[in-house]
């Protein structure tokens, strides 16, 4: 029995040795390319082929909206407010009645002035007749002094008439000023006075404020340092001056782009001593009163043009020194990072003039997970005008293989 156990054990050991030899032979016969197949294939990345062209240089400026016209409505005569004829906060047309002041006193002044004018006019015919009589009697009983006195009396009578007419005109003006009308089309604010309140001529407190909102002004600020750099670039011939009639685009506080474009209205020819900025004013159509005075906005202004290459903002980063960086696919098909010491803004892109050549491939999508030296498979793509969506052309469809 012991011999049987020893024989069984020997057979098991021999079987294990034979199996090991077979596995070794099988591994040795494995294809030599199996290890190479474990390497990762090149990662596909979306690229844009660079091409130099003249591009607009833009500047993103902060700004505030301001009414196109503003008028603080004040009374020009004193009295008690009899009527408020407008609805607060609504639009009114030019000439619309806003306030009515009690006019009894002013009507009485007009009547008194009319009576004074009638009295003055009544004295003119008598003075004219007296002058004519003395003129006939000069040299035959009337003295020259009497004739001269009659002439002066007529002149005084006519002067009294002119004075009475002026008084009547002033009284009529004051009567008309008891009605306060809108000087232009606009939107009213809340009324600061109520019916029955006493107001005085040219008082400090305004009755209400009228604002014209269509069109509307946008007051922008730009640093004087940027202005100097712009002038130096133009003087050096590196770029052309911006067109003052170029469109200006707005972005509202909620991030929505304003549908209307504006035009440059004026720029201040002085720099603020406290902030080091100068002011630019643009004018925009505002038919729906979407922009209200005091709103904060951001404006994209074209300040010039320069030849260079556009790098979409989505494809760029900033290093620790604040310099612009972007990743490219070089001639060997691997990733390399390029740094640009100088860059400018052109819409939703960065504009650079050095470090790129026509035909270079800029990685615009997929670069977040790859490093320098990594092999990649570039796929040409396009970036839309807003610089956010990458549209990759679809590969052409292939016909199915013919069946044998």
Automatic annotation (TrEMBL):
Top-level taxonomic group: Bacteria
The name this protein goes by in its record: Uncharacterized protein
SUPFAM superfamilies named in the record = HlyD-like secretion proteins
Record-stated family: Belongs to the membrane fusion protein (MFP) (TC 8.A.1) family.
- List localization entries: Cell envelope
Which residues constitute the signal peptide according to the record? 1-21
Q: What is its main location?
A: other
Keyword Cell division among UniProt keywords: no
Task: Tell me what organism the protein belongs to.
Answer: Ciceribacter selenitireducens ATCC BAA-1503
Residue ranges spanning the membrane: these are none
Q: Multidrug resistance protein MdtA-like beta-barrel domain location, by residue? A: 215-304
What GO biological process terms does the UniProt entry carry, in alphabetical order?
Answer: response to antibiotic
- Can the keyword Signal be found in this entry's annotation? yes
Q: Which Pfam families does the protein's record reference?
A: Beta-barrel_RND, BSH_RND, HH_MFP_RND, RND-MFP_C
């Amino acid at each position: 029995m012991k011999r049987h156990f020893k024989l069984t054990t020997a057979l098991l050991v021999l079987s294990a040795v034979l199996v090991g030899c077979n596995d070794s032979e099988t591994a040795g016969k494995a294809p030599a390319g199996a290890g190479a197949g474990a390497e990762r294939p090149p990662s596909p990345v979306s690229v844009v082929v660079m091409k130099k062209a003249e591009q607009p240089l833009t500047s993103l400026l902060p700004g505030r909206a301001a009414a196109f016209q503003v008028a603080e409505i004040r009374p020009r005569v004193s009295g008690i407010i009899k009527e408020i004829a407008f609805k607060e906060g609504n639009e009114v047309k030019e000439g619309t009645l806003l306030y009515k002041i009690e006019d009894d006193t002013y009507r009485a002044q007009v009547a008194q002035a009319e009576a004074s004018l009638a009295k003055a006019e009544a004295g003119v015919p008598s003075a004219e007749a007296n002058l004519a009589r003395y003129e006939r009697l000069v040299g035959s009983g009337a003295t020259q002094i009497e004739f001269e006195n009659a002439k002066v009396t007529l002149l005084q009578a006519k002067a009294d008439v002119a004075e009475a007419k002026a008084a009547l005109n002033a009284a009529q003006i004051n009567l008309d000023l008891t009605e306060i009308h809108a000087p232009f089309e606009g939107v009213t604010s809340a009324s600061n006075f109520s019916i029955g309140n006493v107001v005085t001529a040219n008082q400090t407190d305004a009755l209400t404020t009228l604002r014209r909102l269509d069109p509307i002004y946008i007051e922008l600020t730009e640093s004087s340092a940027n202005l100097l750099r712009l002038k130096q670039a133009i003087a050096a011939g590196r770029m052309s001056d911006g067109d003052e009639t170029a469109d200006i685009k707005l972005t509202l506080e909620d991030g929505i782009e304003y549908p209307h474009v504006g035009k440059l209205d004026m720029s201040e020819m002085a720099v603020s001593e406290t902030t080091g900025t100068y002011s630019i004013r643009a004018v925009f159509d505002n038919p729906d009163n979407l922009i209200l005075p005091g709103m904060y906005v951001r404006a994209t202004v074209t300040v010039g043009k320069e030849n260079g290459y556009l790098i979409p903002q989505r494809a760029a980063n900033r290093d620790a020194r604040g310099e612009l960086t972007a990743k490219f696919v070089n001639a060997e098909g691997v990733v390399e990072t390029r740094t640009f010491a100088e860059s400018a803004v052109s819409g939703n892109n960065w504009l650079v003039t050095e470090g790129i050549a026509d035909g270079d491939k800029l990685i615009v999508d997929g670069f977040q997970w790859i490093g320098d030296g990594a092999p990649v498979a570039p796929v040409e793509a396009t970036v839309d005008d807003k610089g956010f969506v990458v549209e990759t052309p679809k590969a052409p469809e292939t016909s199915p293989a013919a069946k044998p």
